[in-house]
Design a protein that fits this description.
With about 290 residues, the chain is of the alpha+beta class. The chain folds into 2 domains: about 90 residues; about 140 residues, no CATH class. It is about 55% helix and about 10% strand. The chain contains 11 helices and 4 strands. Strands 1-2-4-3 form a 4-stranded antiparallel β-sheet. A hairpin with a 6-residue loop joins β1 and β2. α9 crosses α10. The longest helix is centred in the middle third of the chain and has 50 residues. The relative contact order is 0.08. The N terminus and C terminus are likely disordered.
Length: about 290
């Protein structure tokens, strides 16, 4: 098989990058990495990986999300094979490895620049994606909160004070007993600020699921009475919380506060194309004054 020719201007780190065919996720093999960095043996490179994993842990990230330890078989001649250890690393993991590499090696300095730039680009792209998720979910919650209010009204939650109590039951189920005012206080929000406007996409998604599933259950089960409606909303909120816990997610009350979504909505409005002015025919005249 002819050797693959790679343009010289492409970074050696880009050349050894792999892409998962199913998810499209990028990753690098530590076995490829140590060779590119010029280490004479994998054994001498392993302490660098250990330091990088510790740095990952200390930065508040899950090590397993960025460093995946695997065993694979390699050919050793005459049809034989033997197992070796390898680590599949995310872009962030590579950045940490580079930061803990031998600074005397020029390739390490080049790698620091490459992964610093690429990591920043990825952060910007993820931030833009997060903004789009927040805008979409906030719009959906507005719609479904209206539908939820209608379902609650059909169940007997009519007065505004009763609906406020009904909403609090949903929050208490999802936020481990916290009411809306408690969530405001815990997250350092002003009473005038809407908590939904300061949620990230993960927290918005949890509340969106709470609202949609409560509405569906109220209608499906034909729930009647304020107490029964409150209990239903609480139970759904608690079930959503339980699911997050089982998946190893962060509890909603512990998620960070996001900037006001009003800023994103203003930005989106400015980016929307302005409607074109209506065309006026040169033969058109105002006949209102003609008799």
């Amino acid at each position: 098989m002819p050797k693959k020719i790679v343009p010289s201007h492409i970074s050696p780190f880009e050349q050894i990058k792999h892409t998962d065919p199913d998810t499209g996720a990028e990753f690098w093999s530590s076995r490829d990495f140590y060779t590119v960095l010029g280490y004479d043996s994998y054994r001498n490179f392993e302490p660098v990986i250990k330091k990088a994993k510790l740095a990952c842990l200390n930065s508040g990230h899950e090590v397993e999300d960025h460093f995946v330890d695997i065993h694979k078989m390699i050919e050793i001649g005459k049809g034989g094979q033997r197992p070796i250890e390898d680590v599949l690393m995310s872009r962030y993991a590579c950045y940490l490895v580079i930061q803990n590499g031998d600074p005397q090696k020029k390739i390490v300095a080049d790698g620091q620049t490459y992964f610093a730039v690429q990591t920043r680009i990825q952060e910007i792209q993820e931030a833009e994606l997060e903004d789009e998720r927040r805008l979409h979910l906030r719009d959906e919650i507005r719609l479904h909160n209206t539908q939820l209010a209608d379902a609650a009204k059909n169940a007997g939650v009519v007065e505004p004070i009763d609906y406020a109590i009904f909403q609090n039951h949903g929050y208490m189920g999802l936020y481990n007993g916290l009411k809306m005012a408690d969530i405001h206080q815990r997250k350092g929000l002003k009473p005038s600020q809407k908590i939904l406007d300061h949620m990230g996409s993960a927290e918005l998604a949890a509340n969106y699921f709470r609202a949609t599933q409560t509405e569906e259950k109220l209608r499906r089960d034909g729930v009647k009475g304020k107490d029964a409606a409150n209990a239903t909303h609480f139970a759904v909120g608690r079930k959503v919380r339980q699911t997050i816990q089982e998946l190893g997610g962060t509890m909603p009350e512990n998620l960070p506060v996001a900037d006001s979504i009003k800023k994103l909505e203003t930005k989106r409005a400015k980016q929307l194309p302005k409607p074109a002015a209506p065309e006026i025919s040169p033969d058109s005249t105002d006949k209102s004054d003609k008799k």
